[in-house]
Amino acid sequence: MTEVLFIATAKPQFGVLADSVRKFNAQGARVHLAGTFHLESSAEEIGALEVAGLHQLPRSVAHRSQALRRKARTSPLGMRVWMQSKGDAWLRARARKADVLVALDPGAVYTVWRLAQYNRSAEAMFGLAPALKAVEGLQAQGGSVTRRSALPPLEAVARDVRRSVDGLPAAVMRTATARPVMRSSVGARLWRTAVTAPGVPTKVRAATSRYVAEGMQWAGRTSGAAIALVAAASKIPDLGLRAQLMDEAVMKEITKGISPRDLGKAVAAQLAHADEKFAAGKTAKAAAALDRALFLDFHRVLHIDQLTSPLAKDAEGFVKPLYRSTAMQALSRPQGRKVPAAPAPKDRPLRLLVTTSANDNFLHHILEHFGDHPDVELRYLDLAASKHLKRISWAGKRMLEDRLAGGTSDYQEEVERLMRPYLDWADTVFLDWSVGPAGMLTTIDPGDTRIVVRLHSYEAFTRWPHMTDFSRIDDLVFVAPHVKDLTASLVPQLRGESAPRFHIIDNAMDLSGFARPTPADARFNLGLVGISQVAKDPKWAVDVLERVREHDERYRLILVGGDMDPKTSRATREYRREFEKELAPLEESGAVVRLGPTDDVPSKLTEIGTIISSSVREGCHVGLMEGAASGAVPVARDWPFYAGKPNSARTLYPEGWVVGSPEEAAKRILEATATEQSWRDAGKLAAEHALSVWDWPVVRKHFDELFLGER
To answer: How far apart (Å, rounded) are the C-alpha atoms in residues 56 and 54?
Structure first.
């Protein structure tokens, strides 16, 4: 069967097309039609076509990046169609299988020409008559024929793509970057050498490297594509273009869930560009480059969606290159406050403003307590509930530009206008989560209002603490000592004279409600609460399960919580795929039970006899603490991100709770659950500790002291 792919950018003459399709079918061909024109508006005519497949190609680049939209506006029609369509999975799959690629109109010529570079065995044709002849030729020779082309002359195509390849020898590019060549290590190495050849004009070098990278990616050589771009960038004197190519290189790997080998070079290139523009007084461009450097350096695929992170090995060393940048030094220079925060009033209630942006998960008990407190007048502000406040809270690039411009931008004026009424009312502002809103709030002087910010754990792995002026924060609350250690090692301002006061206060949890009767058969149920992130590493818990089941098949693993979202990143998607593969036979046998998300964790914990923390990193792991309060035996992995450091899971939890390996975990479980009595005794001790240290009546006193001091 001969596979034919038609591509159209405008409505074809359906009568002629229908007649031609019948002729193709008579020759034993299967015809597929892809179009950028609106297919639904021609549904009746298309329905009469005897095509094997039909596909709507993207009709614009409206949902693509701003840079691509700008490029599309100034590009010829043929290039615009390619920009819209080249990422379409259906098109790429069909193009790889096609024997004949057919452009039905001039607007589709360039797209067919580009697709032909990746399928060297296909014939590329312009028009129905040449395409039908190609099919007849294939049939006559048993489906194989020397490749011909009835596309317009290469010179004509080159005129349409000059902005892309800038006059490169089209014949060379056409043959040398095809998929078979790029799959060959020799061919790939040859092209990497070519993009670094001396004497090549800058624009040509950049365009060539992008063409080569695209060919390598089509050939499945993602890292090879990144290497080609980095190699070309190293030979380009223009700092902006060099940074752009480096950025494209590392993003090719990041989007595939790979930690880029040249991340440091890409960040350094953006910082060099930022420093150049900052020195020239072009703060907007400097801010854009610095924003990109921070985005790359703290991309979630590197630090959050993996089982390890560069920060786990040497956090201070990781950020040192960042703070060598003059632009970054200007950003992190403490602005301080004009007057110190006023002490809490003695003659009236404290005016306390509690604020966050959408995430109030850890505020419920705090709001309830201080809402009823006789010495507190409470107001709550969700920044995400107002479109104006939400916009300024997460405007990272505008924050950077304002700081680099010395506070003269309109961003600071907008923050003043929107936030000053809240600051003027409040004696104390408590901001939960040290992310975008913390950077926004510290853009302006707080007056004599006391600013308290809480940092959980997630924030330390993001760019936001590096965009926050901590000299305008009076108190910084951490949920655990190891989080404090990591954050202070990352942010130089937190080690200087202008650093805020540090506090360690546990999350507000009502643990008494977890103390419920547990049936005897729960003894053999291991539990994991929360599996929605890669960092939870539930595969570790599965390993533990398999080890204890070697001794007694009554043991089961109960998973509580929603699954990982595969849309988060490619790295998350790959981990979930591997996890599901491991889980399938265990679920089928009943060894693993998934309960899914729930609003009633206490009732689910009555079914669990051992609570596991399998994470590679945590702040305090609320799920483990709740499980301990329920009387389940706690088994906490020595979180690898912090293992062996002065503060870690071993210093947060009692001796005996923490294990260094799945083998140790299995041993602890088997010993603690050997009999019903030993299991209940271990669970009782765990519950007593949890309620005496982490329950809200205990933790509440720390918050009273933080906000009210001695009254």
So the answer is: 7
